Amino acid sequence: MAYAGAQGILHLLQSVRMTTFLHIAVVLSPFLALPLTGWLASRGAASARLLALIPAALTAYFGYAYLMLLSAGPFTVTSTWARELNLSLSFYFDGLSTLFALLIAGIGTLIVLYAARYLDKGRGKFFVALFAFMGSMLGLVLSDNVIGLFVFWELTGFTSFLLIGFDHERPAARAAAIQALIVTGGGGLALLAAAVLLTQATGTASLALMVQGGSLAGDPRYVGIVLLLLLAAFTKSAQFPFHFWLPNAMEAPTPVSAYLHSATMVKAGVYLIARMTPIAGGSTMWTGTILVFAALTMVIGAVRAVTETDLKRVLAYSTIGALGILVLLFGIGTTQAAAAGLVYLIAHACYKGSLFLVAGSLEHETGTRDVASLGGLRRAMPITTVAAVLAAASMAGIPLFFGFIAKESFYETVSAVNTAGGLLMTLAVIASVCLGTAGFVAGIAPFHGEPNPTRGAHETSPAMWIGPLLLACAGVVLGIVPMLAAGPVSLATGAVTGAASAVTLELWHGFTPTLLLSVVTLAGSLLLFVQRGRLWRLRWPAALHSERLYSGTLSGIDGIGRRIAPALQSASLRSYVLTVLVTALTLAAIALVANGVLPTPRRWTPIVFHEAMLVLIVVAAAIAAALAQSNMAAVLSLGTVGYGVAVLYALLGAPDLAMTQFAVETLTVVIFVLVFYRLRGFADLSSRMVKLRDAAVALCAGALVTTLVLFVGASGTTSRLAEYFAEAAPRLAHGLNVVNVILVDFRGFDTLGEATVLVTVAVGVRALLLIGRERRP
Length: 777
Prior knowledge:
- By secondary structure, the protein is mainly α.
- The chain has 34 helices and 2 strands.
- The radius of gyration is 34 Å and the shape is elongated.
């Protein structure tokens, strides 16, 4: 009966059809809700908790999308933006993107509930940044357009910068936010370059179509694509040597750390590798590079985690180790490896999110995150203790927990790797032992031992323990009934490998070598946990701090800037103009001479006497303006140049341009006279050599422009737009004056923009004059 009812609900949901607009609106709902978010959050904790309804509704929506996948397979919703540029707002729903979206929305719901109670001030701006980040992550994992993927990728970096630096009054928070932005932003630029190369290589910007096209291993751009993609993924997912920014990002509030480092931002690089595996994977370059860097990251992160005493840094370094494992698994690229990576992804999101929230609760109640000074809190915080112990057990890979299944899958995958399999397995066991120890340190050490009666800690409010408890219990439920995760993992595995895959998850595989490794791992974790005091006295060698590379690079850039900035930023307008002009002249002249661009003139117009005399007058007036010794002489000479050009327009059959030029010149001369009247007279401030240099540059510029104009006008070039404007002006714009029609109709927004600029400048000049008048004694 119950089964029949469930089937009925399933068919009902599958029968629901949403329009493209509704799909896009729902996915972008975190952005659309930002005004409401800021207003509600600023009204207090109770109002802020209502915001959890938004990610909860998104979780239900992605559950609906999962049912759609089961019935109809992957689907895309697209709203075209600029078809000629391959730009569209396109979201692709398959097993991989939907699984990530479920984690983002589901864990986001618990984070919102937790943060509403955790924060005491600044809730409004915090929740605006948090929901903007949530929307960016959803757009990233769901985007089908590779350019759209880059846009959302950068949005996650910018919004995480706001979240990490939330407590911006502390220098450490500001430095950590800037560091994360620089490192991940640099990877974002690499992703943009990779997106351009991918579009060129495949002829499409759609990731779904790229996957259908298969591997690009034979393309000449393949090496560049791989290096750029891996650089983007490594910076975002904190792989060696870019892993240093993640522990420093612990300056963020705990809800941010829990969200960014358990299920969202740091998993973006993992998602990118998983998504690009069918496109760029399968080669020795792809797999070998990932194996080397991921193995180093896995071991470095895990080992450093057991030497830290700050709870959030323990969890941060253990996250680095887990990210190394995830990148390694998806880099291998086989069906078994992809399934193991997805299982590990889900398990890690559950136990790491729970432990981060527990660390926040401990700091909230005790005022410290130093695990060496915490202990005996099990009686004061019983519910938090249960959540912490369950999460720690899953992280350590104890049987009956989903973390155990994840670790078994990890070991089975590594054992199947032929190249350096023994070394890789050794590193995997070392990393797992250290990660298990880190889980015990974060989840058991604060609650173990004798209580400290001077702390006065007590259990947190339900809003703060419901999240970690639910995530920890999810690890238990999935560990006991792992087939609950088999369906989503199967769909996601098929999306990663490009072929349908049926994944079977079981708690018990019998007495196997993998089980023996799990026993050894658990024993090693317990042994290190008992000896944690000695581990805390260890210090990571300063020579191995990869952050020195970042600091050295910034110092080098600053040093170069200090040396060349005085020369480049001399605060002399004449120097800037000279530099730009000489550079432009040199490049243009080299291009013209080297490529033979200038054609042989085919149409020379005869020179009429009165036109020649007018040109000579214009030239003489220009020379007179340059040699003028007074303001008035210079203004009158420039006016002569302008009026001469206007007469030329009239003689050559452009009376409208002539009238415009007459009006402009008259206004210009009047303004110059009024302005120059208040300025001091000309003075000889340049040496003879400077004057000769400037004269030579001016002559070269004039010669180049004259040459270009003469050859372009006399070479008989055709314009594709001339006939269109001549034909369309009377038909579409109902005007016979083509120039006026172009300015007012065809380029109306251009003209409006120019007019707006002029008005803005006028307002600014007027404001400056008023300010000067007020300051004048």
